[in-house]
Specification:
- By secondary structure, this protein is mainly alpha-helical.
- It has 5 helices and 2 strands, in the order H-H-H-E-H-H-E.
- It has a two-stranded antiparallel sheet with strand order 1-2.
- It is globular and about 35 Å long.
- About 15% of the residues are buried.
């Protein structure tokens, strides 16, 4: 079995968690964010619900920062998190929704 391959019967999240730890410093911030969501089996709806503190139905940069640092505990700088937010804010409105 190749390194990082999942053994039969292994839970996919465990395999993804290992992958997320392996990519570490070489990964782009968006890859770190995406791998953490995948490891937690989080859908975009769940991300918005988890991070949307003001119940607006959208996530602003402040809520996204809190999600990344507190909930997901990503080891990214504020600048890296802002870059990830800019990537997922496809319409450049300053907020993200599903």
């Amino acid at each position: 079995m190749s390194p990082g391959a999942m053994s039969p019967g292994a839970k996919p999240a465990a395999g993804l968690r290992r992958w997320s730890q392996v990519i570490g410093a070489e990964a782009e911030p968006i890859e770190v964010f995406a791998s953490e969501l995948l490891a937690r089996w989080m859908t975009p709806d769940q991300v918005v619900k988890e991070a949307d503190v003001d119940n607006s139905g959208e996530i602003d940069l402040e809520e996204f920062m809190d999600l990344c640092t507190t909930t997901l505990r990503l080891k990214l700088t504020a600048e890296q998190i802002a870059d990830v937010f800019a990537t997922v804010d496809v319409d450049k409105s300053g907020s993200c929704s599903v």
